[in-house]
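Quick illustration, no need to memorize.
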Amino acid sequence: VQLQTSGGGLVQAGGSLRLSCAASGIIFNVNNIAWYRQAPGKQRELVAAIYSTGGTYYSDSVKGRFSISRDNAKKMGYLQLNSLKSEDTGVYYCHTGSWWGQGTLVTVSS
């Protein structure tokens, strides 16, 4: 099983990024997909999740700014980050089943 995370980078406050999570080796459509982030010096926190049913969850800190989606045919998960703030800086991880992606760094400059 492999989760390949990509799409991070350096962006100015107010900007946007799209993170991608490519899965292989699993039955993708039956699993929930979650995105976590870990800011410097802080614990990893759940940012958003999309369930196998299509339902979604967002933490209060990103609600209205981030959008999670999935493409089961391509075994891909996505996290659209809009209206980015400096406090969104961190390493973003994709998670499904019992597996983690390697993380992608998002840096928001103010």
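The mean pLDDT is 96.
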